[in-house]
Design brief:
314 residues; alpha+beta; 5-stranded antiparallel β-sheet
Length: 314
């Protein structure tokens, strides 16, 4: 709808009360500092730029502004429907306020969590750059022992960065499953695991993290000539003018076929290769596999946690 209207930013009416409810809900669901920061003033939600300019105001201030403007607000029945978790928390706010936990104090706590999150995330990004790398298949490899030697919070964050990079999706705010997985990585008999659309296996001194091919839609995506599209949230594909591309996974790709295309051995699980994109032109000719480019007019980039850089032939 925004694209049809030519709108670039979605503004919402979320206010301070909504923010406090969000923080309490996330605390109840076991969120870490990121979730406890609440809603960001500016954010990218499902590729949509969102701006919440009213988070610094409370419900009473907004009601007063509306009344002074002579407008009649619309009452949404869902705002009093206790089947919704948010409404149940809203109904508790009065009792919390009487105990000193006001909307303002909850939101101040959220601001402090946001500051802590920024510092912890920056440290974790540096550790990810030191311990990990991402290859042309969109596979992340992390040095296992150095990862486990990090402070626990940092190690969990680095692990989540790797999972986010290979899935192209933000991990949910609940941190407990990732903490439990991090603890399991230290076992000598770690058999591998799946979480959030990613698979993790141990290979020697490394942990190999890759996308689960079963979680990818098999239908190929059309990228028209001159277009740039992001495939599966992980690979940025640019089709040259006059050349349309079909992009999809390769669930039936064999190791022999992949090594023939590359002209060398493959050092990642075939399940990881099959989750990488295969690009074909309108005639069905192969033009790229992962970020290995067979036609120099085509551009493919792996989208990792440290941004996007066009990758030529690897």
């Amino acid at each position: 709808a925004m694209a049809e209207d030519g709108a670039e930013v979605l503004l919402t009416g979320h206010h301070g009360g909504d923010q406090a409810e969000t923080i309490l809900m996330r605390a109840a669901h076991g969120s870490g500092p990121k979730g406890l920061s609440g809603m960001a003033v500016r954010a990218l939600v499902n590729s949509v730029p969102v701006w919440r300019p009213l988070l610094g105001l409370d419900r009473g201030q907004l009601a007063k502004l509306v009344a002074e403007a002579g407008m009649q607000p619309i009452a949404d029945p869902s705002n009093v429907d206790t089947r919704y978790e948010r409404v149940r928390w809203r109904n508790l706010m009065g009792a919390l306020k009487n105990s000193g936990l006001t909307v303002q104090r909850i939101n101040r706590f959220g601001q402090r969590m946001e500051q802590a999150e920024a510092a912890l995330s920056e440290f974790a990004r540096r550790q990810f750059a030191r311990l990990g790398n991402m290859d042309m298949w969109g596979v992340v490899k992390l040095a296992r022992n150095p990862l486990l030697e990090l402070p626990r919070d940092t190690g969990v964050r680095v692990l989540r960065m790797g999972i986010k990079a290979v899935t192209g999706r933000e991990n949910e705010f609940r941190i407990a499953p990732f903490e439990a997985l991090y603890e399991r990585l230290g076992g000598n008999s770690f058999p591998g695991a799946t979480i959030g659309g990613a698979a993790i296996v141990r290979r020697g001194k490394e942990l190999v993290i890759f996308r689960e091919v079963s979680r990818i839609a098999r239908a190929p995506v059309l990228v028209r000539g001159g277009e740039t599209r992001v495939w599966d949230g992980r690979f940025k594909v640019c089709a040259p003018a006059g050349m349309a591309l079909l992009v999809g996974p390769a669930p039936d790709f064999t190791r022999h076929a992949a090594q023939t295309v590359l002209g060398r051995q493959i050092d990642v699980p075939m399940a990881a290769v099959r989750a990488a994109p295969v690009l074909r032109n309108a005639q069905g000719a192969l033009v790229a596999v992962g970020a290995h480019i067979l036609d120099d007019k085509v551009k493919v980039a792996v989208m990792g946690p440290n941004g996007v850089g066009w990758q030529a032939k690897d």
